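User: Can you help me understand a structure? I only have the sequence.
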Amino acid sequence: MTASLVAASPAQAILGGTESPHAYSFMGSFQPSYPAPPRPDGHGCGVEVLAPRWVLTASHCAGRNPTNAKTGVPEGWKVRVGSLDTTSGGEVAEVDHYYRLATNRDEGGFWGRDMALMHLRTSVKAMPVRIASTTPADNSPVRIMGWGMTCDDYQDPACFPRRLREADTVVQPTSACPSASSGELCIGSSDGSVTASNYDSGGPALVRENGQWAVAGVVSGPDESGKTLYTDVTRHADWINGIISGTHVPPDDRIPNVEGAANLGNCVGSVVSAPASRPQDPALLLTNGHCVEGQRPAPGAALVDQPADRQAPITDRHGYPKTTVRAVRLVYATMTGTDIALYRLDQTYAQLKAAGVKVFRLTSTPVRAGDPLTMAYTGDRLNCTAEAVVPHLREGGYQEDDSIRYATGDDCAPQHGMSGSALLAPDGTTVVGLHNTHNDAGEQCTDNNPCEVGPDGAVTSVRGRGYGQQVHMLAACLTAGSKLDLSHQGCTLTTATRRR
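Assistant: Let's start by predicting it. Here is the structure, written out as tokens:
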């Protein structure tokens, strides 16, 4: 379903189905190592072999590449085909390219076009399945199959079957699926007792033609009626055949260089060094103060030298994990004056350099109006400009000073989840600020609705405006050994009582 490789959501169990009595040569399990599906067997989606080096699946299954590219080269993706079991048997092949018919950014729309081809590094011997010759008529019999969930508990391994399951059902009129879009098939029993499930995404709707199976659709997502929406594969046979034959192969997307961004789950971080840093010093990771785990620093105060145990994968240039670091100490965090947090890591700068990890430098110069900035998110690089430096920014009881307001535009539209992204100077290596907030609803000074306060006290609040925070004051507070000294000359950070 739509959530099969995304977030966990309630899913109907595979009702009316049974374990398949025999394997289907063309049926396979897509098993990406990144992002790894949260189930013991590693299964993420269904695939169907169309040619010795080509499999068909849903676009959203191939859409969890880090940069949401439409066409490109993955890392750590494989398929197991021709087996009943997701963990053994059949043939295993690596995926070395993906081609998505549509993404959620396409002007032509995503629904009804949720389909992708994946190219295999080596050929498989499996007997391919043909594409159906035409859209199946209403009430046509179809067979559906997959390794989707059989119950709703994402913590229970028993809900994730390793053995292939199948069910026979029918194509319903599209009017029976209120969510159906053009190009989608409505499939399942009228009462919802036979349907697909989460982790069945990309799996087939099969029809019989000339005594053989043919694929008519692939699972896209659930319908509110309890039935399942399938992308109608027959409508896109020309697109499929053009790629497989090599006559109409889309070019690869230009992938932004996202090297060095650290994924903190709900936020982003980056490894930074200060002028006093030495290769043998424990490395430091910078993010927002509001991104710390547990209780946030109180207004007017800071957290200093606190316990921490937090893992963060750091991206390579294409957004895949280069290595994973562990934060072992929260050195400093505040949301007053600025919005920053600094963690000490379990590896030194020298160790990270040897692993090929990008290490950024901390600036000692404040951002000024007109400065060009690059926002270093884990899956993208946003081109921003400092439109103004705001004397005071207030949000939910906190106040930051000399905040950076971005010029509005399509190239700089931060979203939730981007907090902590480094703002880089034109050299691509110097961190001059941190993205931390944007105004969601136009409210004044509430959570997620920051407001500007001018020198005369005038309050301004504009929906959609994004802001970052200065970090230039941090370098003066760091000494050799990645130690924090709030009394060091030039250090102007908010202080707090040290607690262990």
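Now, to help you interpret it: DSSP finds three helices and 32 strands in the chain. The helical segments are 59-62, 237-245, 349-354. Let me know which part you'd like to focus on.
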